[in-house]
Please model this.
Amino acid sequence: MKELEKLRQEIDQLDRRLLELLHRRFELAKAIGEIKRREGQGPLDLSREREVVRKLLDLNRGAFPEDSLRAVVLEIINACRQAQEPTRVAYLGPEATFSHMAALEFFGHSTEYVPLESVLDVFEEVESERARFGVVPVENSIEGTVSITLDAVSQYRVKVCGEVYVPISHHLLNQTGRKEDIRKVLSHPHALAQCRRWLRKNLPSVAVEEVASTALAARWAAVDPSVAAVASPLAARTYHLQVVAKHIEDYRGNVTRFWVIGKETPSPSGRDKTSLFFSVSDRPGALYAVLRAFAERRINLTKIESRPAKSEPWRYLFFLDCEGHVEDPGLSECLEEVRRHCLHLEWLGSYPRGDL
Ligand SMILES: C=C(O[C@@H]1C=C(C(=O)O)C=C[C@H]1O)C(=O)O
Model:
């Protein structure tokens, strides 16, 4: 008993020291905020934030788990940034969607969040500067591209300034946690598609219905005891639901990539990605000439996808992501050459790569 008391005293002392250090860090961030304001800069420096996290992870030799260290450090940085200037962040709502999870992962809990009904609402909120940033899904590892996001990013005056990957895992949730109470299962069509085999096997005679989001399904389950929702663990917490079954998706390794959109460009962090779209003339080798410019400079492409241009049938826009920052000399020279091979080329943003 004596030994336990002694160890707890030591923990209490350490916690007090941690608290003092947190306050000191907060004051330093405020002072940096003042300097940035005087120099006309915004409070956020994503590249610096990624550098702070990376340095600490590199230094971490102890037993404290890396995931937890990352979450703690991000939360501290978020609080320090909020001290400089409150940031409003819009996301595809309602509360507890996977976009909300992505936003929390990126901006932490001290940020003011605005859940909106559609991807286009998020773009509009950011374009009109009612929100400084927005978080939208861009691609799922099983279902593929979220086309509404690609179309919107080519139409609205916003830039991509960050990316975040969220592992997707679905739970079956209801008010009691008992399978026998379920008469109907609700969820987003993508979530239902990802759990179809499980639902057929485990709830063969229960009706399945599509709604606009997993979080909306959870909201329904919270008011109707006969309804179960396929949704995230965050939805279970947000809507006070019980877990009937965990991880019911038919495929493992399901990940969604989200974009953080805004009006600023993070400076190079050394581990960046650049997104752009272009169109080329309708002749042999036109696309090849663009790709060759990247290949000759050994610039790695991470994605390329075509979407209908919409202005004319059978014309396409090519969306491309590559490694590097637009301010890197190699990439900027490459883009100059690419521009000469394109009818139209637009840079969508350069940003620190998300951690997979
Ligand atoms: C304190 C700063 O402002 C913000 C907060 C940071 C932090 O808490 O480490 C890092 C970058 C900025 O987004 C800074 O620019 O150094």
